[in-house]
Amino acid sequence: MSETPKINENSKQEQLEQFRVDDANQKMTTNQGLKVSEDELSLTAGERGPTLMEDFHFREKMTHFDHERIPERVVHARGSGAHGVFELYESMKPYTKAKFLQDPNVKTPVFVRFSTVVGFRGSSDIVRDVRGFATKFYTEEGNYDLVANNMPVFFIQDGIKFPDIVHAIKPEPHNEIPQATGAHDTFWDFVANNQESAHQVMWLMSDRAIPKSYRTMQGFGIHTFRFVNDQGKAHFVKFHWIPKLGVHSLVWDEAQKIAGKNPDFNRQDLFDAIEMGNFPEYEFGVQIIEEKDEFSFDFDILDPTKLWPEEDVPVKIIGKLTLNRNVDNFFAETEQVAFHPGHVVPGIDFTNDPLLQGRLFSYTDTQLIRLGGPNFHEIPINKPVCPFHNNQRDGYHRQTINKGPVAYHNNSLAANTPSPASESEGGFVHYQEKVEGKIVRSRSDSFNDHFSQVKLFWNSMSPTEKNHIISAFSYELGHVKNMAIRQHVVDMYGNVDSALATEVAKNIGVNPPTTEESNVTKSSPVLSQENTFMSHETRKVGVILQNGFQGEEVKEVLQGLNVSKIMYETISDKQGVVTGTNNVELKVDETFTTTGAVLYDAIYIIGGSEVDEAFYKNAEHFVNEAFKHYKPIGASHDGVKWLEESNLIGSPGVVDGSGQKFIKQFIEAIGAHRHWDRNVI
Question: What is the Cα–Cα distance from 208 to 149, expressed in whole angstroms?
Fold first, then answer.
C-alpha cells in the first residue's frame, strides 16, 4: 500500500504547480509542440486564393476555439473562487474521527467557490438571490466538499421537487425573461402552491439576499449531517461559516445601481481584497445534537426548510477559514471545480434528510455532462492531494496511466489489489442506522408546519429589516401579472403575520389576508444583521477633491484611514493628478464618469479652490446618493459648506471638521456601516 503524503496548507498549491504554464517570452507552438512561424495569415493558394485544407495550424486553432465553452451550471452558474487554508481551533475527536478535525496543528488546503443561484454565467453579481458558499477541503483521507448556501434553509423538503423550483424561478421558457430574478409569475405561482417554501422565501426577501460582499456573507450547510467518532458513536450536526467582518448587506436601490455600474462588484471585491492582502476570514462553527434528542424539538431536525435556533442549539466555533490566494486561471479552476455533498471522509456521514438524499444523486450526474465524462476528478482543481487507487479505467479525458493488466476485483494476478481498506485502516464505513418501514411516497407529519419558523424569523428582525422585507415582497409581487397569484401569496403570508401581509396587500393592489397568523412569539436575535459584528476595517471610502485642496490636512486624514486599514480612492473631474496647498499631490483614481457613490462604503468630501459649477453638481450627487443609502459622510473645508447648503450637517453618520477628532469620529461612523436613524426622504 502506498504511503499517504503529509498534507499541509501548501499541498494543493504544490500539486497544481506542475500544471501551471507561463507563456511569456516563449516561442509559439502547436498543441503538439511544433514551433509556429505565422499566426495571422491562413495558408492559401496564392495571395488572393482559397484557404487550403492542409493548414493544420488554422484547423487546430479554430477547432480549439470552437470548443472552448463547456455547459454552464444549471444553477450557481455565476461564480467566483479562491484558494485558502483551514485551521482547527480544537480537536473534535469526541465527536468525529475525520482526520482534518483532529489536530489543531494541521492546516488543510481548501478551495472555495461563491456564486449566485438563478442567473446565467454572464448575469450580474448584484441580484436578489440565494448565494452559494462551497468549500473543497483537500484532506489526507480524500476530498471533503461542504456545499453550503448563505441561508440556512431551502425552498423544498424533497429532492424530487428540485427541478420544479429551478424551472419556476429561472427565466420563463417561452421568452427567457426575466434574467437572474424571481420577480415574475412562475416563481410566485410555485411559492403560492408549495407552501413549504415560505421560510426560504422570507429569507430571500430579507437583506440576506443582497450581500454587500462575499467577505461579509454567512454560510450554512443547510442539511443535517452526522459526526461519527472512532467509537462508532454518532451526533447530528449542522455546519456554519461566520465572516469575521460581520454579516452585511446592500440596500435595494443601491444594489440595482451597482448592477449597472459594476456587475462584477462581488467577484472584484473578493479578488482585490486578496490581492491587497486583506484576506477574507470565516470562523467554522457546528451545531451538535445527540441522537437521543432527535425528537426533542418542536420541529423535525431533518427538515431542510427548518433551522436549529441557536438559543436551543448553540453554535460551537471550532476553526477558521482564510482565503489567501486568487486563482491563476478562472476557467481551469473556478469554472471546472466540481463539488458534491457526497464527497465525504470517514467521520462525516449522511442522514435521512430527503433533500440531501436527492442531492447525493444529482451532483455526480450533473458533473458528468458538464465536465465531459467520468474523469472530472482528474482535472487539477478537483484532484485529491492524497493518492487514489481503484479499478476504474478509460473514459473521456483520462489522464492517469494505469500500469499492469489487472482492472478488476477479485484477482490473483495482482495479489487481489487494490484491496478494500478496513475501518481501522481508514476505510469509509457507513453509519449503521436501523431503518425499517413500508415502501411509500409519503412524508412524516413532523414536516408539515410551514409557518412557525417563518414567524420566528420575522419576530427576530429589526424595524428597518422588516421595512426592507415588506418593500422586497412589494417589489417582487408587483412584477407578477396574475392578480390571483398575488392574492394567493398575500393569503399565504397571512399565516405568518397579518400586519406584514396587509401592508404588502396595500402596495400591490389586492385584498388583505383572511388567514389566521401564527401565534409564535419567540425570536432569535442572532438572525438579525443589526446584531452582527461591526468593523471599519477594509471598508472603502470615496475621497472627492479638486486642485487647491488643503494639502497637509487631507494627508493627515488619509494617513489615518490607512492606519485603520480603511481603503480609499480619490475622485475628481479629470484623470491625472490634483495638487493641494503646500504642493501636496494626489493621483486621481477615478472620475465622476468612471465610478459612482454606490461603489463606496463612505464618502469624504473636500473640494478645493478650483471647484466649478459642474464639479459641485457631480459632488452633490455623490453625497446625496450616499446619504440616501445611509452611508457615512465626512466633510472638510468646502465640503462642509456644501453639506450646510444641503441641510445635512448634524444628521446621523455625517461628520465634519478637521484634525484627529474628526478622523476618530469619521472612522467610528464608517465602522457603524449604515445609519438607519437618518431622516431619508
Answer: 11
**Is 393 among the annotated ligand-binding positions?**
no
For residues 261 and 327, state if they share a domain. Answer: yes
Nearest to 375 by CA among 396, 356, 355: 396
Q: Do 213 and 82 meet the contact criterion of CB atoms below 8 Å apart?
A: no
Residue 362 pLDDT level (bands cut at 50, 70, 90):
confident
Quick one: 543 and 643 in the same domain?
A: yes
Q: Which of 351, 378, 405 is the last residue of a domain?
A: 378
Q: Look up residue 92 and give its amino acid.
A: M
Contacts of 260 (CB under 8 A, 6+ apart): none
Domain of residue 362, residue span: 79-170+209-378
Asked whether residue 107 is domain-assigned, the answer is yes
586 Cβ contact list (under 8 Å, min separation 6):
545, 554, 570, 577, 578, 580
Given the residues 143, 149, 150, 194, the one annotated as active site: 149
Task: Identify whether the C-beta of residue 185 lies closer than 8 Å to the C-beta of residue 481.
Answer: yes
Measured between alpha carbons, how far is 292 from 301 in angstroms, rounded to an integer? Answer: 12
Whether residues 512 and 558 share a domain: the answer is no
* Among 194, 283, 197, CA closest to 247: 283
The answer to whether 208 is annotated as binding is no
Do 343 and 463 sit in the same domain of this protein?
no
pLDDT at position 436: 84
Q: Look at residues 360, 378, 396 and tell me which one is the last residue of a structural domain.
A: 378
- Domain membership of residue 53 (yes or no) is no
Q: Is 73 annotated as a binding residue?
A: yes
Q: Is 162 annotated as a binding residue?
A: yes
- Contact by Cβ (8 Å): 311, 287: no
Of the chain, the percentage scoring pLDDT greater than 70 comes to 99
Strands 585-588 and 633-635: unpaired
Rounded Cα distance between 291 and 223, Å, is 16
Q: Judge whether 78 is annotated as a binding position.
A: no
State pLDDT tens for residues 399-427.
999 999 999 899 999 999 998 889 998 88
Residue 149 bears catalytic tag:
yes
Query: Measured at the alpha carbon of residue 263, what is the angle toward residues 199 and 284, in degrees to the nearest 5?
Result: 50
Asked if residue 475 and residue 371 are part of one domain, the reply reads: no
Structure confidence by residue, pLDDT tens digits, 262-317: 999 999 999 999 999 999 999 999 999 999 999 999 999 999 999 999 999 999 99
Whether residue 274 sits in one domain with residue 218: yes
Q: Which of 31, 57, 64, 76 is catalytic?
A: 76
User: Do 160 and 309 sit in the same domain of this protein?
Assistant: yes
Residues pairing with 225 in the sheet = 237
637 is catalytic: no
Q: Is 363 part of any known ligand binding site?
A: yes
Q: CA angle, corner 482, sides to 474 and 177, nearest 5?
A: 80
Query: Are 640 and 605 part of one and the same domain?
Result: yes
**Largest CA-CA distance found in the chain, in angstroms, rounded:** 90
Within a 10 A sphere around the Cβ of 618, how many other Cβ atoms?
17
Task: From 123, 119, 24, select the one nearest 75 (Cα to Cα).
Answer: 119
Helix axes 162-169, 354-370, angle to 10 degrees: 70
Assigned domain for 326 exists: yes
Rounded mean pLDDT of the chain? 95
94 falls within a domain? yes
Closest CA to 566 of 590, 531, 595, 535: 535
Q: What is the pTM of this model?
A: 0.94
Q: Work out how many domains the chain is built from and give that number.
A: 3
Distance separating alpha carbons of residues 611 and 12, to the nearest angstrom: 54
